[in-house]
Structures are given as C-alpha cells and as structure tokens.
Amino acid sequence: MTETVVSPPGTDEAGAAPKRLFIKTYGCQMNVYDSERMADVLRPLGYAPTDTAEDADFVILNTCHIREKAAEKVYSELGKLRVMKEGKGGAMTIAVAGCVAQAEGEEIIKRQPAVDLVVGPQAYHQLPELLTRTARARGERIGADFAPNEKFDALQVPRGGEGVTAFLTVQEGCDKFCTFCVVPYTRGAEWSRPVADVLAEARELAARGVREVTLLGQNVNAYDGEGPDGKPSSLARLAYALAEIPGLDRIRYTTSHPNDMSDELIAAHAELEALMPYLHLPVQSGSDRILRLMNRKHGRAKYLELVDRIRGGRPDMALSGDFIVGFPGETDADFEQTMDLVRKVGYASAFSFMYSPRPGTPAATMAQVPGDVSRERLHALQTLLTGQQTAFNEAQAGRTMPVLFERKGRHGAQAVGRSPYLQSVHVDDADHLIGQIVPVTIEHGQQNSLTGALVTEQKSTPLEQRGSASQAVGAP
Questions:
Q1: Does 473 have pLDDT greater than 60?
Q2: Which of 47-51, 150-154, 448-452 is predicted with the least confidence, judged by mean pLDDT?
Q3: Cβ distance 275 to 244 under 8 Å?
C-alpha cells in the first residue's frame, strides 16, 4: 500500500484558494496510475495536494481487492475518516474508489454513511460531476458501471507533474478467471486502448521530461488495441512505436501472463534496445496439479520452456515472478515442485504470498490448507527467493551499466537511479545528473540495491556483454 499525493499545488482557474486533496492508494501500479489521473481531473476544480487526511477537504481511498481482508482494512480507515469529518463539522468529502468500491457498491454506503461517493475503476472521469452533485444536497453518490473506453476518452486533461519515470495504462481487465482472483469481477473483461491514444499520452509524458514508461495492464501482454490500420495491434508493435518517440529511452511493462507471451514479443526483447531486460512473469505454482486447480491454463513444462525461449533471445533477461503458497489442496509434494521450479528458473526478484480466500472466487469454497503449514512454506520459499535476489545483485559488481537517475539520495550529493534490471542504484556526487542516463560502474550489490560510481573514462559499452545478468541466479 502506498500513500499517493499527485496533483500539483496552485489555485483554480478563477484564482480561488486551492482546496486540499488527499489520495490514499492501496495495491498495484495500476491503482497508482488511476490515482494520478483522478488528481488530474480534479485539478481544474482547484484541488491541490496535502500530505495528510487531517488537512484535506476531499479524501479518496483508492482501494485494491487482491490483498487479504482488503474490505475490512478500508472500513477501518473509513471509521477514522468519519471521526475526522465529524470534527470538522462535516466539512470533508470522502470517496471510496477502486476495486473494493466496484465489489462492495451500495454496501459501503450502508455500512459507513460518512462516505459521500463510491466510484468504480471505470468511472473516475465522473468524479467532477459526482462531486458537484454531492455538494448539491447529496445527489447521485455511486458511479461504478461504465465502459473502460468511456473513462479514457474522458481523461483527456493534461497529466500532472511527473518525474523521469511514469506509469501508462494500456490495457485493463482480465479474461483468465484464475480461481483465486477477483480481477475479472472488479475490472471486467480485457480491453485495450487504441495505439494512437497511448502514443499521444506517451508523447505528452516525454515532453514533460519522462525518460521511462511502464506500460500497465492486468494482462498487459494480451494488448490488442486498434492500430493505425484499424486492425488490432500487439504489445510488441506498440513498443516499437513508443521507442520512436524522442526522449523516451526506456520501456517496461507489467503484469504479463505466460499464455500471452508471443514469439513476436520475445523477438522484440532481443531486437529493441529500449525494451528493458526485466520481465515480470507470474507462475503462481510449480505444481501442474495446483496450476489446474488455479485455472492458470499453463503447466510447469510450458512455463519452463517459455523461460528458455525468452533467455534464448535475450540471455541477460532478469525475471520476476508471483507465487502463492498454501493454495487449497496443496501438499508437501506440490510445494516442493514450486521450490524446484524456482531453483531451475532463478529469479532476480519475486512476490510471494500465503493464500487467503477472496469472497466470490471459486477457490474460497475449497478445503483450505492450515495456516501454520502455509506460513512455514512461505518462509521457506521467501528464504530461497531472497537468496536468489541477493546473488543476482551481488553478481553485478564490476559491471558497467546505464543508470537512469530519478531522485536525490539521503546523503549529501548522492543520487538514486534504476538499472536496466529495475534495481535501485545509489551513487555519490551524482545529484546533478537527475533525469539523465549515465554509465555507472557497480561496486557492490546488496539484497535490495546496488552501489556504484560514475564512470570517469568511457571505455566500455553501457551493458558490456549481454548474457551475464541471469547466470548468478541459476538460469538454465
């Protein structure tokens, strides 16, 4: 969970003093992107950021339904906000947005009357209208059922201030229906933005100084937005088009599904320098039996073969993954299959979770694994994954790689940037280089970051030799 304040300070177009906006963002990068766009559509109404809910005139909880007990956490936060609102004599507007809003709907209003607005993921463009109606004696308070194209068509206001990196949503929804997941029910069917719209937003970002974009989607590599010829495009072709935008030097994307990793996209990673050699490719389990229960629609062998093909085209590809332990019916043998897959693949980073039921999903009705068993398995898996991540980072020592500096560090003139493999890189005497991509020699690798020094004599190519990045974590 992150707390995100994203609209720029200032006054509204009439010169009135700015109203204060606080957005608390839960969950994934798509929610971060959505929070930014909500702030964008509210900016013309005079809303400027504040760092705390206590100081806000308008508070938005942008929620996620993926994590355990998501709704309960939202209601707990709403209870605190109700007390703040009462202390202000009711002079605070409270909205619940995101996937919990979509799933809970009217129940949120019933359980917490202090809430003024409930807005689903496809209705953020309705915020100014809903806010106006609320101010007029509590008119329509719920906006949840709109098509994704309506949202993006309406969100044509300029984006707020960016750093040198930015998220860019290109695809929403999911058609996979994994038995543990609520996304198909809260975000709807897969839908992709037209290529022209994505490129227009990317050009605007580049004009504002953004050097790297991360393309977002629940199944981003299933992207099939309308291309210039009126026919469905692909994520690979979109990446090539984005790489032509002056100033936009790096392209990433998340989250991918193994079934949508096409040969064309694998080839793009081998050919397109702007497409970073870091891929988040969730597998969830290494057991074919559990994968079938999850309705993942791919097996262990297919995933491993896919990893081989990806690294065949781009040997230095760093992989990240998602894992669920303790899924209903998982045995010790099933779990060992997951551990074996992790050892075979070798991950540069990963996200691992203990299964928890999501109301309304098929897996919630299955026989559950005891909590102490799941916790023990999670500890074992995370120990293995942490060891792989640390080994991957330590293996970068001595290499020279291009680092995109994003912000000042904590110490003196230190700056912090990102390697092509998404690692944080800390470099002294580099704060004057923020916004630039600069060769850095890596001196040390730690579990969560790298430490490097600026290259004084440019004797080596930025990434030196492809092929060494993934070997440290047991890549086949």
A1: no
A2: 150-154
A3: no
Per residue in 160-207, pLDDT (tens digit) is 556 899 889 899 888 999 998 877 876 778 889 999 999 999 999 999
Q: Is the pTM of this model over 0.90?
A: no
pLDDT-based confidence at residue 464 (cuts at 50, 70, 90) = very low
Residue 64: partners with Cβ closer than 8 Å, 6 or more residues away: 1, 26, 27, 28, 31, 70, 98, 99, 100
Q: Which amino acid is at 475?
A: A
CA distances from 129 to 31, 123, 439 (A): 21, 11, 48
Residues 6+ apart with CB under 8 A from 222: 171, 175, 190, 192, 235, 257, 260
**Neighbour count for residue 343 (Cβ, 10 Å):** 14
Distances (CA, A) of 259 to 174, 191, 215, 281, 476: 13, 17, 18, 10, 20
Shared domain check, 158 and 251: yes
d(CA 45, CA 129): 11
297-312 pLDDT, tens digit each: 999 999 999 999 999 9
Kindly state whether residues 364 and 256 are assigned to the same domain.
yes
pLDDT by residue (tens digit) across 215-233?
Answer: 988 899 999 999 999 999 9
The total domain count for the chain is 3
pLDDT of 461 reads: 41
294 with 326: CB under 8 angstroms? no
CA distance 117 to 95: 4
Contact present, 470 and 316 (Cβ < 8 Å): yes
CATH number at residue 309: 3.80.30.20
How far apart (Å, rounded) are the C-alpha atoms in residues 362 and 380? Answer: 27
| Terminal-to-terminal C-alpha distance of the chain | 34
Structural domain including 415 reads: 400-468
For residue 420, give Cα distances in angstroms to 54, 264, 275, 316, 348. 39, 21, 9, 10, 12
Residues 286 and 370 in one domain: yes
Q: Which of 340, 365, 394 is the last residue of a domain?
A: 394
Does a structural domain hold residue 211?
yes
Domain for residue 37, yes or no?
A: yes
CB-based contact 141:118 (threshold 8 Å): yes
